[in-house]
């Protein structure tokens, strides 16, 4: 196990859902967390919650689809903390619609948020990690990155693409001590899917769904794992307990 205390992490999409839970969970492990997003109020609430538990975090307003916004964000983290040890690419959006009625704008919004943002952040942090010969990059894909879903063609395309991008990047940087992993959560109780519970103590709306904090703990475990045991892909499914006949 690698101790996480005083490591520096960037978490995108940190204002809600899995990103929020991941920021809070990493902070509990002693990580200094940069909470990245566009919802300033929500990100500030996450930072306040972390601070109230004696953790270290700060929020950064960033449009993850914009090259220069991403560049400035990484530069700011580097100025404040001197490094980036962990990069969690979690920002995501899902716009429902069948292909024949889907607008090009919605297509670009989905691909740019879910896939291009990961490319931009990885491109920015890899030189930092390469110079230190260590680093963890975790890209949050989805079960929809392996299985198509009707009405979510753009979302599935972005998540399939994120897995392929992660696998390619992993081969490029593995000799530099940088480990790249994909996380594929199953159905999770978040506002993303118009489901509500985000509190770790809240009851699930359905037993067949994960809580964001269960996914976040899995992500934290990846960050702690021994570098000689590289976990390239982690699939997380909710446990469905079927009643005995």
Q: What number of domains?
A: 1
Q: Using the CA coordinates, give the radius of gyration.
A: 17 Å
| Alpha carbon gap, first and last residue | 42 Å
Question: And the CATH topology?
Answer: Rossmann fold
User: Any idea what the CATH superfamily is called?
Assistant: NAD(P)-binding Rossmann-like Domain
Main sheet summary? 7 strands, parallel
Could you spell the SSE succession in H and E letters? EHEHEHEHEHEHE
Question: What labels describe this entry?
Answer:
6 helices; 245 residues; 7-stranded parallel β-sheet; alpha/beta; Rossmann fold
Structure in a nutshell:
The chain has 245 residues and is an alpha/beta fold.
Strand and helix map with partners:
Layout: E1 8-12, H1 17-28, E2 32-37, H2 40-52, E3 56-61, H3 67-81, E4 86-89, H4 104-132, E5 135-140, H5 153-173, E6 178-185, H6 212-224, E7 233-236
Parallel strand pairs: 1-2, 1-4, 2-3, 4-5, 5-6, 6-7
Helix pairs in contact: 1-2, 1-6, 3-4, 4-5
Protein model, in words:
By secondary structure, the chain is of the alpha/beta class. The chain has a single domain, classed as NAD(P)-binding Rossmann-like Domain (Rossmann fold). Helix content is 42%, strand content 16%. It contains six helices and seven strands, in the order βαβαβαβαβαβαβ. The protein has helices spanning 17-28, 40-52, 67-81, 104-132, 153-173, 212-224; strands at residues 8-12, 32-37, 56-61, 86-89, 135-140, 178-185, 233-236. The chain has a seven-stranded parallel β-sheet, with helices on both faces. The chain is globular. 42% of the residues are buried. Mean pLDDT is 91; it is low at 193-199 and 202-206.
């Amino acid at each position: 196990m690698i101790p996480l205390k005083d490591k520096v992490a960037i978490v995108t999409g940190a204002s809600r859902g899995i990103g929020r839970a991941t920021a809070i969970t990493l902070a509990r492990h002693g990580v200094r967390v940069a909470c990245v997003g566009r919802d300033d109020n929500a990100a500030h609430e996450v930072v306040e919650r972390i601070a109230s538990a004696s953790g270290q975090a700060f929020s950064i307003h960033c449009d993850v689809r914009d090259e220069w916004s991403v560049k400035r964000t990484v530069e700011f983290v580097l100025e404040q903390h001197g490094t980036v040890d962990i990069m969690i690419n979690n920002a995501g959006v899902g716009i429902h619609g069948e292909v024949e009625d889907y607008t090009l704008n919605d297509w670009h919004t989905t691909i740019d948020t879910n896939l291009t943002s990961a490319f931009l952040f990885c491109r920015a942090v890899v030189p930092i990690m390469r110079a230190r010969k260590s680093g963890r990059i975790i890209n949050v894909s989805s079960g929809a990155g392996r299985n198509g879903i009707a009405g979510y063609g753009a979302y599935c395309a972005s998540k399939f693409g994120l897995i392929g991008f992660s696998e390619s990047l992993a081969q490029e940087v593995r000799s530099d001590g940088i480990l790249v992993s994909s996380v594929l959560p199953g159905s999770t109780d978040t506002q993303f899917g118009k489901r509500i519970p985000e509190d770790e103590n809240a009851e699930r709306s359905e037993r067949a769904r994960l809580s964001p904090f269960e996914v976040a703990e899995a992500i934290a475990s990846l960050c702690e794992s021994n570098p000689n045991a590289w976990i390239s892909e982690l699939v997380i499914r909710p446990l469905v307990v079927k009643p005995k006949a």
